[in-house]
Specification:
Layout: E1 8-12, E2 17-22, E3 27-34, E4 41-46, E5 50-55, E6 59-64, E7 77-78, H1 82-85, E8 89-95, E9 101-106, E10 112-117, E11 121-127, E12 131-139, E13 145-150, E14 156-161, E15 166-170
């Protein structure tokens, strides 16, 4: 996932590994190690101040996005100790979905976070002063919801599943 506020992007993968890359130099900046223990990171979403990561066991974490002071001429930082990385963890929500969090997306106005899982469930989170679940839509599609897209005016939410089906939801009318 690209951080649109800077020239960095983040990648997640098997074993809960999370990495930060410099898109200009195409070099690894920081290897955060196993940010989700051994659970595979399936989705990442970034807003102005926060990054959300979802994993294969349904756990959601919120991280603080801070300015990078790391020089691109140095070797990549490696957070060997998990406690070092968790200093940037704003909140570990724990398992919020019964299945793996397949997709996460933040509205363009930064007000909402949407999460989906491999069972077809959709949840909406309020990103106000206190990050909290706003609405559980329940099972809105049969099978894993593999991607979410929000229109630039934040009016509609599009969901697709692994079978190629698509649903359109009106965010304002819920």
């Amino acid at each position: 996932t690209v951080d649109t506020n800077s020239h960095y992007f983040y990648s997640g993968g098997e074993g809960g590994k999370l990495k930060k890359w410099n898109s200009k130099t195409k070099k690894l900046c920081t290897d955060y190690g196993h940010a989700h223990g051994n659970a595979t990171i399936l989705s990442i979403a970034i807003s102005r101040d926060f990054m959300f990561t979802g994993d294969g066991v349904g756990r959601l974490k919120c991280w603080s996005v801070m300015p990078d002071t790391h020089s691109s001429d140095e070797k990549p930082l490696i957070a060997v100790n998990l406690s070092l990385f968790s200093l940037n963890c704003v909140k570990d929500f724990g398992p919020v979905h019964a299945g793996g969090i397949e997709a996460t997306e933040i509205s363009h106005n930064g007000q909402w976070l949407f999460t989906t899982d491999h069972n077809g469930f959709l949840k909406q989170w309020c990103l106000g002063d206190e990050i909290r679940m706003y609405k559980n839509y329940g099972n809105v599609m049969g099978g894993a919801i593999s991607s979410i897209a929000i229109t630039p005016d934040d009016r509609f939410l599009y969901l697709t599943n692994e079978e190629g089906n698509m649903k359109k939801l009106d965010i304002k009318s819920e």
